[in-house]
Specification:
- Helix content is 52%, strand content 4%.
- The chain is mainly α.
- The chain folds into 2 domains: 87 residues, DNA polymerase, domain 1, CATH 1.10.150; 173 residues, hpI Integrase, Chain A (Orthogonal Bundle).
- It has a 3-stranded antiparallel sheet with strand order 1-2-3.
- Strand 1 and strand 2 form a beta hairpin.
- Helix 5 packs antiparallel against helix 6, helix 6 packs antiparallel against helix 8 and helix 6 packs across helix 10.
- The protein is elongated.
Length: 302
């Protein structure tokens, strides 16, 4: 089997055309490598990528299932192989996709933990503004919840990417993809408070001059530090849920969808490549759905 040349091209495609991170590229390559391992152990010595059929993939699925991998892990591997064959089609190396009719195992969707509005307010109000880091931490929470940022997007946020005159911030997301995210008045106000009162007191280290949120030594905050800040506030606020910076992102999206926001708009703000990822936020409770149809459907009163 001569898979190496195909995989090498696949890696270049993911890096140059899809702008994926090194970690993501390695994960995709591992997924394809798993299938190559299967083919070798099953004696399919002449099975090149263009000779793979649906039956081979179904055998592969049964093979990885026997290894004890969870349905989620199995689905991820199948997703990587689908991406590989999509690349082969795009590059005209194949004229059919053997993964097209392959059914991945059902995983179910684990709903993300969220905070309700009162819990978000409690988290923000517990911040001690008399401490040196108080204004900064409040700005961090207002930005996470007000813009729905990933923690890496927050720690890399720069002053030059704040465009408050337009009501937006420019965010660098996964794969170095840029997107414009609306920023609300509350977040803008708190960021400005921090910029005017506290950040000028910190001498930025070389390379961090444009970074918005700094630690007391003038360096960019780490992801771990953001986790620590939020979990400490949750503990002091008596919030019993296990939360993280991502919980505020989930809460941002959930509250938008519950308020009637268009799912495509939420997808754009979150930086999701697929609408399927955003659809997880449609986990609205039955009471909310009932109230919605009673309020908006023209025949609801009949």
């Amino acid at each position: 089997m001569n898979w190496e040349i195909y995989i090498k091209g696949f890696k270049a495609f993911l890096q140059l055309e899809k702008s994926l991170s090194k970690h993501s590229i390695e994960a995709y390559v591992r997924d394809v490598g798993k299938f190559v391992e299967f083919a070798e152990t099953q004696g399919y010595d002449g099975l090149n990528p263009e000779k793979v059929e649906l039956s081979h993939l179904e055998e592969f699925l049964a093979w990885i299932n026997k290894t004890g991998l969870s349905p989620t892990s199995q689905s991820r591997i199948i997703s990587g192989i689908r991406a590989f064959y999509k690349y082969l089609l795009v590059e005209d190396m194949m004229n059919h996709d053997p993964t097209e009719l392959l059914e991945a195992p059902r995983t179910g969707r684990k709903l993300p933990d969220t905070l309700d509005r009162d819990e978000v307010e409690k988290l923000i109000n517990i911040i001690d503004l008399s401490k040196p880091e108080g204004e900064r931490n409040k700005a961090i929470l207002e930005t996470l919840y007000g813009c729905g940022l990933r923690v890496s997007e927050l720690t890399n946020l720069t002053i030059s990417n704040l465009h408050f005159d337009m009501g937006f911030i420019k965010v660098v997301g996964k794969g170095n993809k840029e997107r414009w995210v609306p920023v609300g008045g509350q977040a803008m106000k708190q960021i400005n408070n921090y910029l005017e009162c506290k950040r000028p007191l910190i001498e930025p280290k070389k390379g961090s001059e444009d970074i918005l949120f700094l630690n007391r030594r003038g360096n960019k905050l780490s992801r771990v530090m953001i986790f620590h800040i939020i979990r400490d506030l949750a503990e002091r606020g008596g919030i019993r849920k296990t939360i993280s910076p991502h919980t505020l992102r989930h809460s941002f999206a959930t509250h938008l969808v519950e308020g009637g926001a268009d799912l495509r708009a939420v997808q754009e703000m979150l930086g999701h490549e697929s609408i399927n990822t955003t659809e997880i936020y449609t986990h609205l409770d039955r009471r909310f759905l009932k109230e919605t149809i009673e309020k908006f459907h023209p025949w609801s009163g009949k």
